[in-house]
């Protein structure tokens, strides 16, 4: 199996997902199990050893090594580092840890017109009563 050059390795989970999509036709049934588990459980991947991943997928550790090598990684540790890096980046965003994503508003609830007045149809949501 050919290995990718280091500079061509994915640097983010999104890049890894694209790489796996491009190479999906080359996966065996067993390596596909590993691929599916990988993206169904990215938080676990940061901590799983190759043995634990193999057990979780119901495959051998050799299958895990073949999967990682097929993607172009020289070691399982290099592969796992992508998931660890993602967790570190999330941890640097305190707001991501304080509230679950569903609790965060997607956009401000009140938009002001250029002159500072409320656009027609928007009520005061500050909780003040009349």
Task: Give a topology summary.
Blueprint: H1 13-23, H2 29-40, H3 42-45, H4 50-57, H5 61-70, H6 76-91, H7 94-98
What does this 3D model show about the protein?
- The chain is mainly α.
- The chain has a domain at 9-92: Orthogonal Bundle (Arc Repressor Mutant, subunit A).
- The protein has helices spanning 13-23, 29-40, 42-45, 50-57, 61-70, 76-91, 94-98.
- Helix 4 (50-57) crosses helix 5 (61-70).
- The longest helix is centred in the middle third of the chain and has 16 residues, at 76-91.
- The protein is globular and about 40 Å long.
Task: Provide a brief overview of the structure.
Residues 94-130 are annotated as: Disordered. By secondary structure, the protein is an all-alpha fold. It has a domain at 9-92: Arc Repressor Mutant, subunit A (Orthogonal Bundle), CATH 1.10.10.
Unreliable segments (pLDDT under 50, ≥5 consecutive)? 1-5, 107-113, 125-130
The value of Rg in angstroms is 22 Å
User: Roughly what is the average pLDDT, rounded to an integer?
Assistant: 79
The helix count comes to 7
Q: What is the CATH H-level superfamily of the domain at 9-92?
A: Winged helix-like DNA-binding domain superfamily/Winged helix DNA-binding domain
Distance between the termini: 73 Å
Give the beta-strand count: 0
Give me the strand/helix succession: HHHHHHH
**Class of the domain at 9-92 in CATH?**
Mainly Alpha
CATH architecture of the domain at 9-92: Orthogonal Bundle
Instruction: Predict the CATH topology of the domain at 9-92.
Output: Arc Repressor Mutant, subunit A
Helix/sheet category: mainly alpha
Relative helix content: 40-55%
Percentage beta strand: under 5%
Shape: globular
Largest sheet: none
């Amino acid at each position: 199996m050919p290995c990718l050059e280091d500079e061509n390795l994915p640097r983010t989970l999104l890049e890894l997902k694209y790489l796996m999509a491009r190479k999906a036709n080359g996966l065996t049934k067993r390596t596909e199990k590993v691929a599916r588990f990988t993206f169904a459980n990215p938080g676990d991947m940061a901590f799983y050893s190759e043995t634990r991943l193999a057990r979780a997928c119901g495959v051998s550790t050799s299958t895990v090594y073949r999967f990682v090598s097929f993607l172009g990684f020289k070691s399982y540790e290099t592969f796992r580092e992508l998931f660890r890096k993602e967790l570190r980046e999330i941890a640097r965003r305190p707001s991501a840890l304080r509230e679950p994503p569903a609790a965060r508003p997607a956009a401000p609830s009140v938009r002001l017109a250029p002159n500072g007045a409320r656009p027609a149809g928007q009520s005061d949501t500050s909780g003040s009563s009349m």
